[in-house]
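Newbie here. two chains, one complex. Structure please?
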Amino acid sequence: MPKYVLIFINQGDWRANKSEEDLTKIYAPIRSWWDELAKSGVGKGGQELKPQRTATSVRRVNGSMKVTDGPFIESKESVGGFALIEVDDLDKAIAIAKSFPGGDVEVRPVVEH
Amino acid sequence: MSKYAFLFMDDGVDYQGDPTPEQQKVYADIFKWFEVNGSKFVDGGAELQPTRTATTIRKGTGKVTVVDGPFIESKESVGGYSIIEAPDRDAAIALAKTWPGYGIEIREVLE
């Protein structure tokens, strides 16, 4: 069965200025959504990332690797996390992305090796 | 030990399309890199099909829209990810510098 990665898109540093109580409220539906996917065998693992201001970038410039603070692409929107799912086709993957109780999601098919 | 996500960045290369011999060599070196460094990975993650295959789901103002394409149009894009374990960020950076491809964005994982 094909695999897809859901890339969760963060708007800025959304966790900043949120209380523990706010975060618990926000995460509760996301946790149930993920638990459900994992239980059904569709969800194959995932991670949430610390905000992009904590990023370090290592980039090839004129043949050698250059280290800089910050993300590759400076933008209000950034990769906030990943989930790997296994479903029949892209339509199913899109349906799952639509049901995510958080923000926007990019869906990308996985290269099978 | 801390967990770091390696976001493997591409510079417009399409390994699944029609790569040049030079790009094929880099792709082969990347395979070797994963073999050599296998023990450092806690999650192999995934290699992604190029951004031209992306679909983005937007939930802006209550209405859900589905659009073709990635969430950011840019020459540089995420081509895959893995989760590694390293004693600290310097060790993660040292490993990232050995990457045979274009680049890596290092992001700590939120536990």
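Moderator note: The radius of gyration of chain A is 16 Å. Chain A has two helices and six strands. Thread marked as resolved.
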